[in-house]
Amino acid sequence: DSGVTQTPKHLITATGQRVTLRCSPRSGDLSVYWYQQSLDQGLQFLIQYYNGEERAKGNILERFSAQQFPDLHSELNLSSLELGDSALYFCASSEPPTGTSTDTQYFGPGTRLTVL
Amino acid sequence: TQLLEQSPQFLSIQEGENLTVYCNSSSVFSSLQWYRQEPGEGPVLLVTVVTGGEVKKLKRLTFQFGDARKDSSLHITAAQPGDTGLYLCAGVRDSNYQLIWGAGTKLIIKP
């Protein structure tokens, strides 16, 4: 158990819908990272937040957005869903010393999103 | 095109055999991390290598960072079924400190 929690574990929805994925980082971790993992593309970095502020952006679509709240939990919002958005979505958190990707990242169990 | 190429993509061997998986790039990384991901779970960090030529051992797993810090290898001795999983390498570039991920090597160890 990494200490990172993600809800829900599974999510099935239809094309065009909007969903929200939730992540709670390990106690004391200030950074939260979101990743998408699909069968044919490996692990894709989406976005990073550090202590409530956006720190880095990866291959995140405009239909996707995220935020980190004062209590440090984070939400990833996916809208106008398409079939190709079906994937595992992971959240990771890291320790506070530098707040960059060089820190060890602890991954949650993921949310499996299926878009029908 | 993946900035970090992992090979092989898939490997299935018998228990007790040795194996090596590779993580290659044309770019220089300030450090490189290896993760193992088991089905239904998130990746778990195994090791971070920082210095060119560095070798780190974790029980039967040996990790090496290339002298030029462009590549890395993971060697497993006497593989066991518990080693089954997806092995991911991830490199950090000095320019932006972001992790660049390889696509992974799916390893199956048959009893």
In short:
The complex is a heterodimer of chains A (116) and B (111). Chain A has 116 residues and is mainly β.
Radius of gyration of chain B: 13 Å
Oligomer: heterodimer
State the end-to-end distance of chain B.
Answer: 35 Å
Q: How many β-strands of chain B, per DSSP?
A: 11
What global shape of chain B is seen? globular
- Helical proportion of chain A, percent range: under 10%
Shape of chain A: globular
Give the number of helices of chain A.
Answer: 0
Q: What Rg of chain A is obtained from the alpha carbons, in whole angstroms? A: 13 Å
Mean pLDDT of chain B: 91
Q: Approximately what portion of the residues of chain A adopt beta-strand conformation? A: over 45%
Q: Give the fraction of residues assigned to helices of chain B.
A: under 10%
Major sheet of chain B, described briefly? 6 strands, mixed
| Helix-strand string of chain B | EEEEEEEEEEE
Structural class of chain A: mainly beta
Strand content of chain B: over 45%
List the helices and strands and how they pair.
The complex is a heterodimer of chains A (116) and B (111).
Chain A: E1 5-7, E2 10-13, E3 19-24, E4 31-38, E5 42-50, E6 53-57, E7 64-68, E8 74-78, E9 87-94, E10 105-107, E11 111-115
Parallel strand pairs in A: 2-11
Antiparallel strand pairs in A: 1-3, 3-8, 4-5, 4-9, 5-6, 7-8, 9-10, 9-11
Chain B: E1 5-7, E2 10-14, E3 19-24, E4 31-37, E5 44-49, E6 55-58, E7 61-65, E8 71-76, E9 85-92, E10 99-101, E11 105-110
Parallel strand pairs in B: 2-11
Antiparallel strand pairs in B: 1-3, 3-8, 4-5, 4-9, 6-7, 7-8, 9-10, 9-11
Descriptive account of the structure:
The complex is a heterodimer of chains A (116) and B (111). Chain A is 0% helix and 53% strand. Chain A has 116 residues and is mainly beta. In chain A, strands 2, 4, 5, 6, 9, 10 and 11 form a 7-stranded mixed β-sheet that branches. In chain A, β7 and β8 (74-78) form a beta hairpin. Chain A is globular. The model of chain A has no long low-confidence stretch (mean pLDDT 91). Chain B is mostly beta strands and 111 residues long. Chain B is 0% helix and 53% strand. Chain B has no helices and 11 strands. In chain B, the strands form 2 sheets. In chain B, strands 2, 4, 5, 9, 10 and 11 form a 6-stranded mixed β-sheet that branches. In chain B, strands 1-3-8-7-6 form a 5-stranded antiparallel β-sheet, with no helix packed on it. Chain B is globular, with a radius of gyration of 13 Å. The termini of chain B are far apart. The model of chain B has no long low-confidence stretch (mean pLDDT 91).
